[in-house]
Amino acid sequence: MRDLVDIGMGRTARRTFELDDINIVPSRRTRSSSEVSTAWQLDAYRFESPILGHPTDALMSPEVAIELGRLGALGVFNGEGLWARHRNAEDKIAELVAVAEGGDAGATTRKLQELHAAPIDPDLLGAAITRIREAGVTTAVRVSPQHAQRLTPTLLAAGVELLVVHGTIISAEHVSNGDGSADSDGAPEPLNLKTFIAELDVPVVAGGVHDHRTALHLMRTGAAGVIVGYGSTERATTTREVLGMGVSMATAIADAAAARRDYLDETGGRYVHVIADGDIAGSGDLAKAIACGADAAVLGAPLAAAAQAPGRGWYWPSVAAHPSMPRGMLTLVGDDEPASLEAILHGPSHDPHGAMNIVGGLRRSMAKAGYSDLKEFQKVGLTVSA
User: Fold this and answer.
1) Which residues contact 91 (CB under 8 A, 6 or more apart)?
2) 289 vs 286: CA distance, rounded Å
3) Is the overall model pTM greater than 0.85, yes or no?
4) Domain tally for the chain?
């Protein structure tokens, strides 16, 4: 039963929970972490870690996508990012970082918008995707709902294997990035996601969604996975301030997991993966997201702190570049001596807060609770902090 509270005369609101509000409860048995599997499978593609890299230029160069694949995760390349707009994307990011280091947030946002005002070059986009594909890792690319139909032929020709249709807010009836305004490339008619997916031979992951009803509707379009949340990260994401919209991730994940169960019954066995995207800063948050029902999670800022990240320790979400309504800002997340992607994912760690050896922390949490795989771990007991 939903927990409704009065917020005034004649107005109620649902009480929801953040990941910070819940705790995992160990069971009466434990096991060795060496006996725990963190593997999961999306359609025909198997990954050893339930982690997707956020499709932001701060993190996802073609080289980083390749390295994440080598490390057992999935790097999601931004099909509308700077690598698709500039031949010298690394130099452009260096210019952006130089402005950010000056401390003027407004100037930094204007510079980011300026860089994204350049048109998408299909040749550059295709070349970047081909580079990832030829490295032998699973090739996943993110596009916005507005440009999915226009860019998908280029993506397919370059060998994309997983397509991620991703916006701040997405629905089955009308798909947009939350405000409906056109960007510098011009926005086409709204995407009919069900028809779009039916005509493709590659699996599609779509999101973000915030509640049970929207998640269920999105599953009915034929999506292989549904993203829950909009990548909220402390300081870097400003959607709450700009749109007044927020996602309590623990509740949102649990709602989407319930939609997955309902859709499984409705279809007689079709399983749609739930992917959490927001407020995951380390291994403990990842463990709690899985415990709430997620199959995997999107990591942005934790991976952007890596030495290989093109943002040089700075992180920003893809929506920070919106030409008329930016909903994010550049935030420094890296150290003077940044760790490698391998250390952040698999250790060893010298960080006591779970920002390194993230997969190892998840594995240890599962072992301490007595579970051997991710699906079983979704049944672990939970408590709510007072």
Assistant:
1) none
2) 5
3) yes
4) 1
